[in-house]
Specification:
It is built from 15 helices and 16 strands. By secondary structure, the chain is of the alpha/beta class. The protein has an eight-stranded mixed β-sheet. Strands 14-15-13-16 form a four-stranded antiparallel β-sheet. A two-stranded antiparallel ribbon has the order 8-9. The radius of gyration is 22 Å and the shape is globular.
């Protein structure tokens, strides 16, 4: 019964997203992919024309350039709100979601789904969606790797994997996205990818998902990501006729065979977003012809049909995400805000360990646990300039002494990133070749109390989650009274 209900909801959303506003005379613009009925993906030139047309035709959309690739292609940020985009100041006070589309250039379905979603939200007449757009901010980076898309490559024009660059920020694309995270502080970030070829039986679902696994992510953010994936997204997309499972997990039926991907690497977007206080979610859809009996007959002998399913499955994921944020957007916002408070308190109090490795399914080795954690990092004057720009893009606060030495205190909202960036033992430390001293104790730091280096919720984090639940209850009661 539950799956039937979910299927009905998703079908209803799909039916009402595209209708034109009253008085409109022309049909909304179509992507190049839609014009070819899935025979070819939207070109860069078609994308630019499509976005410009949507931007010009809808007051709900504002588009800006947030960066330029090495080959000169623009990176766009699209804001959507009703009756018009709410702007940066408002976004910091309301639930804000960011969709990052096709970081890997040879995985175009997410980009196509995002372009369609932008258009659909720009022209929808559905009262539920209009209410959602009036209360929350939605951001899209519709093509996160246009150079890679132009050459159908995983990496950008230099061959760099953008989805491993959310710590060191060596790429133009990674830096542009980091600036959006710093300025807009989204509470929910979805990263859309594709995987394949599928492995029949053990790894062949239409849709795969994963949450932030890095142990430095606040437990409230982590648990909300798990809840989104398992309690909402999986049944929602299954209700729409797709199969779904955990990314990187090979399984036969209910028997887990091996975990082959999906670790704690802080350079990966879902983990980096969790470290920056957003519910970071990875979604991957299958590029291979579907093994799902509901999908397979349409795809036999038709590449275009397979392409349409690849895009449609991503589009369904976006619809299911909109449903989740309609119901729990205030809870997501509260968890994000309290994550920042909790990590600031942990950094100032030195009462929580830093994990250089280990995941929620992989306990860390003793050598990978920093406890007591450094209360601050100090960089020599000659080395500070080498890291200053990256720290700024991460929103990390620092001070400079009269001698030009940079001091980075742990007690700030960016605490989860600081040690991973500056400690020489970190896998993606940006401090290679510089002199960085991590100081566990100094005149400015207090000794830690009651050491407990196990990866479990700290008292501060637990209190934060309780507070988030309380705020969510109030928000839901307020919605019912409106």
């Amino acid at each position: 019964m539950r799956l039937v209900l979910v299927r009905s909801i998703v079908a209803a959303l799909a039916a009402i997203l595209i209708p034109l506003p009253a008085g409109a005379q022309e049909a909304p613009p179509q992507t190049g992919f839609e014009q070819s009925n899935g025979a070819s993906f939207t070109t860069h030139e078609q994308e630019l024309a499509f976005l410009a047309e949507v931007d010009a035709a809808s007051e709900r959309v504002t588009m800006s350039v947030i960066g330029t690739t090495a080959e000169g292609r623009p990176l766009h940020l699209v804001q959507i709100g009703s009756p018009s985009p709410h702007g940066l100041e408002a976004a910091l006070t309301e639930p804000t979601a960011l969709f990052v589309c096709s970081q890997h250039g040879n995985e175009p379905a997410g980009r196509e789904a995002c372009l369609k979603a932008i258009r659909d939200l720009a022209f929808t007449t559905d009262p539920t969606l209009l209410q959602l757009l009036s209360e929350q901010t939605f951001l899209f980076v519709p093509a996160a790797n246009p150079d890679g898309r132009a050459r159908n490559s995983r990496g950008n024009s230099r061959g760099t994997d953008i989805n491993r660059d959310h710590v060191g920020l060596e790429t133009e694309e990674g830096r542009s996205i980091a600036g959006v995270i710093r300025d807009w502080q989204p509470d929910f970030v979805m990263d859309l990818h594709e995987y394949g070829p599928s492995q029949p039986v053990v790894y062949d679902d239409d849709i795969l998902y994963l949450w932030p696994r890095n142990l430095n992510v606040d437990r409230g953010i982590h648990d909300l990501g798990v809840s989104f994936a398992l309690d909402h997204l999986k049944p929602c997309v299954e209700g729409a006729g797709y199969t779904a499972d955990e990314y990187g997990l090979q399984a036969v039926g209910d028997v887990d065979v091996a975990q082959t991907a999906g670790d704690e690497d802080e350079g990966i977007m879902r983990n980096a977003m969790g470290l920056r206080h957003a519910v970071g979610i990875l979604v991957e859809t299958a590029v291979s012809m579907s093994t799902n009996p509901q999908q397979l007959p349409n795809e036999i002998g038709s590449t275009a049909a397979t392409n349409r399913r690849r895009v449609a499955s991503h589009r369904t994921v976006i619809d299911c995400t909109l449903q989740f944020l309609t119901d729990r957007g205030e809870e997501v916002r509260a968890a994000s805000a309290f994550s920042a408070l909790a990590k600031t308190a942990e950094g100032a109090g030195l009462n929580a360990p830093i994990y250089l490795a280990g995941a929620d399914n992989d306990p860390p080795a003793d050598d990978d646990i920093l406890y007591p954690p450094p209360c601050r990092y100090e960089l020599a004057a000659g080395d500070a300039a080498a890291v200053a720009d990256v720290l700024n893009l991460h929103g990390i606060r620092s001070t400079t002494t009269d001698d030009g030495e940079m001091i980075v205190p742990a007690g700030q909202r960016s605490e989860p990133m600081i040690a991973l960036l500056l400690d020489a033992r970190g896998r993606r430390s940006i401090a290679a070749g510089t002199v960085v001293d991590g100081l566990p104790l100094s005149p400015a730091c207090s000794p830690p109390a009651d050491p407990d280096p196990s990866p479990s919720p700290s008292p501060t984090s637990t209190a934060i989650v309780i507070g988030a639940v309380a705020l969510t209850t109030v928000a839901r009661l307020r919605r019912r009274s409106d």
